[in-house]
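**User:** My hope is that you can spare some time for a protein that puzzles me. I have put the entry right below:
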Amino acid sequence: MKGLLICDCDEVLLHMVRHFGVWLRERHDIDFNMSGGDFRNSMRRPDGRLVEFDEMRGLIDGFFPDEMDRQTLVPGAREALAALAEGADIVILTNLGDHCRDARIAQLAAFGIAHRVETNQGGKGDPVARLVAEHGNPVTVFVDDLGVHHDSVARHAPQVHRLHMVSEPELAPHIKPAPSAHARIDDWAAARGWIADRFAAGLPAPEISPEQGAIP
């Protein structure tokens, strides 16, 4: 049975925050500081005030899908997916509104990445569990940049191998390894081998206890 790779897009396959920050400065006179570690602590007005949560969500929605052509490919992502696709099915699970699905498909295809795309809102654990069941419960690897999604997958599909990846070099040092992930790798050259090894071993993921945290 083929393995299954379920992969996020923004800050995994495509750079987003660097281009989002440029757009915020150009269009809204808002500074985006990657050292904030997340959106809630990174967006400030010229007087230093943080952008309120509701407005922050509106700004993110304003970037997608109209500004998606600003995004650029993460080095090595296309080549890694092409190699892994020889022995695995690949699904791109991206947290965008459903109205952005066609734009995301076209965006990825323009970079030479043509795989099934599923949009999602909220935690990714339930959709990952459904995708695993749909594919016949194969050995599965999940890749995402947000720890909250690794927590969700750990609850809903604990047998899935979870790889935490933050591919933006300016952001990665400010993001701690996700405790619910089995590994943290921020570049595709190394991640490709780690994922291939999970498929080759043919075993479900080991359980992670809260005290144990992420393992190599």
Q: What stands out?
A: The chain has a mean pLDDT of 94. The chain has seven helices and ten strands.
